[in-house]
Amino acid sequence: MVYLLAGLALFFGAHIYSALRTRAPERRIEARIGAGPFKGLYTLVAIAGLVLIVWGYGAMRPAAIIWQPPVWTVHLNILIQLIAMPILIAANLPPGYIKKTLKHPMLVAVKVWAIGHLLANGELNSILLFGSFLAYAVFDRIMVKKRGETGLPAEVRVSVMSDVIAVLIGLIIWGAMIFGLHEILFGQPVIAGLG
């Protein structure tokens, strides 16, 4: 559990710093140490956090069962991830209607992804992992709203093609996860006996 908690602290510590840091350019750490070194340090901390999260999550198996989810929540999670994947992809593409409508699609995707996994997993390590991502996404959305970052400007041009690409890539990733990729990456099949 120590590795998982340390990884969560490192990963989210860096992200919470980003959410809370001053927006005045002259007062930022980047201005003092330079943008390149800051980005490099930030990336190293985030990657170290991710490595510890993955290692710590796996090291906690088998984890204590906090609650036993009904079987139907596993199937519900599969459908929920069908929604999360295209939103996640849309967050990283040029503006489309998905990105413009959701304003902060990365945070929406993380919340949807985390809620689905919390519904389907009742082990302590899962609750710590997915609960942390959900809590951070909610916190960051509040901070974004406080800063007045309301998403894309009203006049921004959007492309339906970005949405089509997001849905197609999202469906491909979703299907790959179901048919074996999830087990390869995370050691657990989406559906037992499939993949």
TrEMBL record:
The chain crosses the membrane at residues 40-60, 72-93, 113-139, 160-181. One of its GO terms (cellular component) is membrane. Its main location: membrane. It is found in: Membrane. It is a multi-pass membrane protein. It comes from the Bacteria. The keyword Ligase does not apply. InterPro entries: NnrU_dom. Keywords: Membrane, Transmembrane, Transmembrane helix. Residues 4-188 form the NnrU domain. The keyword Protein transport does not apply. This is NnrU family protein. It comes from Henriciella barbarensis.
